[in-house]
Amino acid sequence: MYTVRKVTQDLYWVGANDHRLNLFENIFPIPRGVSYNSYLLLDEKTALFDCVDWGSANQLVRNVEDVLQGRKLDYLVIHHMEPDHGGSIEEICMRYPEVKIISSEQGFEIMRQLGFTKVDEHEQIIVKEGDTFSFGKHTNAFVEAPMVHWPEVLMSFDVTDGVLFAADAFGSFGALDGKLFNDEVNFDRDWLDDARRYYTNIVGKYGPFVQDVLKKAATLDIKYICPLHGPVWRNNLGYFLDKYDKWSKYEPEETGVMIAYASMYGNTEHAAQALASNLCEKGMSNVVVHDVSNTDISELISDSFKYSHIVLASVTYNLDIYPVMKNFIMDMAALNLQNRTIGIIENGSWACTVGDKIEEFVDEQLKLCDVLNDRVTVNSALNSANKSDMDSLTDAILDSMKKNKELKEKAQSR
Ligand code: FEO
Q1: Most buried of 117, 158, 166, 403, CB within 10 angstroms?
Q2: Is the CB of residue 84 below 6 angstroms from any atom belonging to ligand 1?
Q3: Which pTM does this prediction carry?
């Protein structure tokens, strides 16, 4: 039982930690690694809930054998068929020839699409919303959670112990490295940024579907949340549910400013830094500044979900938006980011068009986003003529924060 952790009296974490993978989904950097969470129930019947990535199958197999102690595996429940979890299904099929597989209809379809021919040698049990399945003392109720994060996703709720198997929801980048529960880590300090980066980049587009799941979850007496990545939650659940509620409603977590700049020779950077200094000078120090050329886009997306105000500072390039900045704002639109106040700093040595291009993009592609009128236009480098425009942009940001606060207070007092 070297790496196994006990979740409840009958449930064990038997997953894997992966520090070898550099890019999750071959796109998102994971310097702290990632965990693939798999859980094994020992009841009158035994049941394995989800698997791990193919490359980590050895850890799963070892852990399952350690917990089963010679018992046979009766059921394999697949809540989500993305290969970071489903990748080792065939390994389990080969090792446990009598195992019966429980999944959604589309889950089985995707197994076949992926060429998992072994699955067809096993009894298949299709479950859907509202179905229940008893393993003995424990009965799981199945809940469909389409698009959190693929269409076939199921969650299930162990009504006996109040355990929600939440699939990709409530997950995070970061390997567990022994610390399984949220109360064994300093989540706010060490995990929240990676949890936000995971959610916003992977599920961010599907906020309304997450809202549907949160409404279903509100009717359950949940004692444990067992996600497929990251820590298991066993207390203070409201903290994380509230984060998910905000993220999926596209409400900012914090009143503050993310300034993202695209600068070729440091002059647009200087303007971005000048705005940051101005904001701090006037009392708004919740400001982060990112160079879009040197910051992974997943971090830019994460912070754009976090902060209420976003300032895009870009040089003009080919009479258009600097390519890296364009990629960032296109990703914001792809992930459905909305409900933000946007400021613009533009730079051009001749034919400065980037501000108009950004404004046009925001108006057409980002829902419920207001662009502040107080744009700063830089001709190559900041000069004394920019001072009053920089002050105006700073004041416009602070004014809109004040207005948002008043509107919020008014809404709360109703
Ligand atoms: Fe962790 Fe959508 O798979």
Answers
A1: 166
A2: yes
A3: 0.96
